[in-house]
Amino acid sequence: MEAVLAHLRDAIERGEYAIGDKLPSEAELCRTLEVSRPVLREALRALQTMGLTVSRTGKGTFVVASTVEDPTFGDYAASDLLEVRRHVEIPVAGYAARRRTPENLDHLAHILDRMEQETDTTAWVAMDTLFHLAVAEAAQNPVFRRVIEEIRDALARQSAFLNELGGRREQSNREHRAIVEALIDGSENDAVEAMAHHLDRVETTLTDIVRSPRTDTPMEGGPEA
């Protein structure tokens, strides 16, 4: 999928497909690139998330930008989502360290154990959002949970995007483990620092994906998939 995405993104950025152009049909792209339809559709979804294309039902996929600026996840731009996450989730981690109950810690540990054993990206992403909800619950303020619930879909989309294109899963597991350990210790400072580091890494990976079309990935006739 990364190779297909890099190939199509490079073609758009080089002007092979100009703004307003319609991309070839899925059948034609699958045939040309020699990839399966599910792989192609993942790449097309990523192009749309990056803001390079838009899919119009019954008409096809059209190019709407020639460079990547600010990906969107559901209803929210990546920059807006990250700004809110920093202002909400970092202090929430501090409150959670002070207020968490044994039940909160058991729940977080259970989610984390499952995440560290999970190999399916879709299942892992679902648990990733549950993890952040559980941290909000541990802060013992229902408003915090409501805020995370509001952005839950965007969080899931962002998580899937970062894992598929940035290989974030193992690194994210380690960052989540550090957050849980800080909550277990009841250390507000450590919890705040661990969550801040986690969000820093999210931003770094996202920036790397946006800046690098990965044109070093070979895509001549297309790898079999």
What does this structure look like?
There is one protein chain. The protein is mainly alpha-helical and 225 residues long. 68% of the residues lie in helices and 5% in strands. The protein has 10 helices and 4 strands, in the order H-H-H-E-E-E-E-H-H-H-H-H-H-H. It has helices spanning 2-13, 26-33, 37-49, 78-99, 102-117, 121-138, 142-150, 152-166, 169-185, 188-211; strands at residues 53-56, 60-63, 72-73, 76-77. A two-stranded antiparallel sheet has the order 1-2. Strands 3-4 form a two-stranded antiparallel sheet. Helix 4 runs parallel beside helix 9 and helix 6 crosses helix 8 (152-166). The longest helix has 24 residues, at 188-211. The chain is elongated and about 55 Å long. The relative contact order is 0.16.
